[in-house]
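Hey, quick one: can you model this chain's 3D structure?
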Amino acid sequence: HLKLIKRRRHRVESIDEARLLAILELIRQEAKIYQKTADYDAITALYRRELRTGADDVQHFMKLAGDYWKYSAGNPDREKTALQLIGSRVKSNFGDKLKSSDWFTKDTAIKPHAQLAGFYRAAGDSDRALRLEKDLAKIREDMRAEKKS
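Sure thing. Here's the predicted structure for all 149 residues.
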């Protein structure tokens, strides 16, 4: 069953929204199988790979991160691992885009950072969440000032 799901996921080839949704659904199915066997290392490996390779699209990235967080929530060790992984991917995939001169690029990059702040807050790390939220508020304020000028 797992091999079939993996094979189907690898066959999806077009680069459109349908492809991203199909990949997301197959990843979810694969993760559910791992969850049934309590193989959280396999879930982490699955999302580590997907957050790295399939994360060009911000919506897709956020769905992947949200799904991974759901598998991790409620267990402090898994939450810590998920926060480290998601945080590093947010930084590597979208961190530089916060410095972009393009308003839309910057606005899009704020979204996964805000999601990460929510994960920090849900994990009980309100100091880290607050710092990130303050940074994002400053960026939004700068964007509004740029837009007016």
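One thing worth noting: The CA atoms of residues 80 and 123 lie 8 Å apart.
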